[in-house]
Amino acid sequence: MKCRRIIFLAFTLFGLGTALADAPFRNHRYDAFKVLKLNSDNIVFIGNSITNMHEWWEAFGDTRIVNRGVSGAVSDEVVANLESMITGKPGKVFLMIGTNDLGTAGINNAAHVAANTRIIVKRIRKESPSTQIYVQSILPSARRDLEQQIQTNDSLRAICKAEGATYIDLWDALYSVSQNNEHSLDYLHLCASGYHIWCKAIAEHIGTDCTYPENGVNQTGGIGGSNGMRTSTFGFAPVRADDILLIGDEMVSSGEWHELLGSGRVKNRGTGWGWPGLGIADVTKQIPVILKGRPDNVAPERIFLYVGTADVNGTADIATLKERYEALVRKVKELAPHTPVFIQALLPMNDATKNATRVEPFNNALKAIADANTEVTYVDIYTPLLNGNVANTAYFIGNYLDGKGYVEVARILAGYMGGGVKAVTREEADERYDLLTARNNFGANLGTVINMQTGHGIGQIPAGSMRRLFKACEKGYALLADETLTVKELNRAGAAFSKQKLSVLENINRPRMSEAGKEYWYKLYTPNRNNRYMTSNGAGCGVTGNEIPGYASIWKFQSRPDGTCDIINRADGSYLNPAAVYNTQVKTSSETPQRGWTLSYANAPGTFIISSGNVQLNQTAAASHNNAVFNWSTGQTGADRDDIGCQYTIADVSDTVTIHKRNQ
Is the four-CA dihedral 470, 480, 114, 31 of positive or negative sign? Predict the structure, then answer.
């Protein structure tokens, strides 16, 4: 049989893993939550960018409200970071999650969103029984599949009914988001008018009315996209005489400043959902919307500016950037002539050359601007966060501030804010960070059990083993409900649970081994990577993952004396051969290979990893690889249980779709 020709444009494996391009942003946002403290008075908003982009506490004039939205978040990440959002047993939780799941290959289905939402609701119920849970429908969007969105919301409604949570249906009220630009500029996110509709819909559950004006008009400052929509919310938010406004780019936007500084006078007017955020010219356009967007606004007590990172990363010379910044300061002073302005130095980057040639000269220019203007003060947040000639890694994730970095900046700014603010201390931040890290790790581990499959089928766990694990899981939730536990106690309990869980997972039901006179045939496919069926293309040829299974997509397992197994194709009798160099295509052979394969559990319910030493099967995602199956695993370990390309379902042929024998 002739090989099918497989042509590769490159040998670097792209698209593996669940990490998305904006993972550094999401990680620094999750990290920032771990230095913040919640209590039973708090009302917590959990979600993705649609939640992240709004100042909820200002919309209701209630500083008890906190934002735990993360732009780009998928439901898996909420599960993994849930302890940072519920430790302290908040009074109410408002959850909206799933839109990004439906836009992400491998998890773009209602069942995935529902499974994780069920975990979230159950965990809150177990750990904080008095917390009122509100699950909000995902919003209609023209950028997602309509039927999937409807199925997802139907599932969320059913979960709420089963678990005693309150379901809030926002679909009809905001259906226009999917149809026109009345309340959205991109058919996904919201302008201020859309948030106003949302706030009015949930006001009875919050317990207070929305502060937004009924006749408010979206003002974007001439800025498009999500940044323009964020700008429009500033035009609805009130500015009072004792307010302290923090205006700027992504660094400002991602800080929960009224929590970091313990004051409802401190208000966030930052914009950006990825480093570096808006440049100086766009922030200048925002100033009229921020200060004069509402007719009842008055000049605030103080204004803090942080912007210029995007400009410094450009090519304009420092003199030009100084002129841009001077124009920004003039615009602020024009609209708030008596308000003191504090211009913050840019933070250091993790690039020594960029710091020396761009950041430091720019900061010197800012200092010169402050020296030349009355009631303008330069605030140095560059030097305290520097280590040698680069950003101090204790305070940064790449170029993003981490949780402790935000605490450091808040502590510096507090010294320029006068009375009435109280910054989180380093000691408080360290204690909370370690505690919430331990709780997140333990809680996420417990959460994986809910979706594990029990039964006699392939990929399921025997009922007896699962009963023991469920008991251990209940004990774990009881421990998390006790918020007096120390980090040491949590880590010890987590390690014990992990050991028990791993012993149970090793009991996963595997496919039957074929032997003389008795054969069992299976299909192997990647359910979280486009349902690609592993297919032979002839002995000695590369293996591919085909969208439609054929006769060459059927395999059997045959035991070897060393406890491993051979994987043999039904169509051509070829053997899946582990002799593949890392990051290259796996091939078949006509002869028995020197080594066999091992099946073990993957970290997705009902799936396996298939490996031979440090060789591991991975279904590629890049079209340039013609959907080839590669030898690939994170760190070349052959034990990657998390990458979706490594997670295989093994299905008995008789239980799946009809196989069409191809012409030989």
Answer: negative
